[in-house]
């Protein structure tokens, strides 16, 4: 009877151990899925970071081009104003000569 009780206790312990193993396997699978999800998220974040860096460089280049365009436009506008003054002066001279 004592050995039967011992066998019964061992059977219960074995059943508990098997339950714990099953729980640990389930937890391990869940953690594996979470790890994969985190790895996927990290890969996406890296791609977003790279895109952001690229866009920042593009933005900086565009700003430099805009500054250069503004400088050229300003220089051209100044040159046109000077030519306009020269034309007005020449018109005045022509009027004087025709009079």
From TrEMBL:
GO terms for biological process: cell division; regulation of attachment of spindle microtubules to kinetochore. It comes from the Eukaryota. InterPro entries: Astrin. This is Sperm associated antigen 5. The gene is SPAG5.
């Amino acid at each position: 009877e004592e050995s039967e009780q011992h066998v019964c206790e061992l059977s219960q312990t074995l059943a508990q151990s098997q339950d714990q193993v099953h729980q640990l396997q389930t937890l391990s699978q869940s953690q594996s899925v979470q790890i994969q999800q985190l790895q996927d998220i990290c890969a996406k974040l890296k791609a977003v970071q790279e895109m952001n860096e690229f866009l920042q460089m593009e933005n900086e280049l565009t700003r430099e081009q805009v500054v250069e365009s503004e400088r050229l436009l300003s220089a051209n506008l100044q040159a046109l104003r000077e030519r306009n003054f020269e034309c007005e002066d020449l018109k005045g001279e022509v009027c004087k000569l025709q009079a």
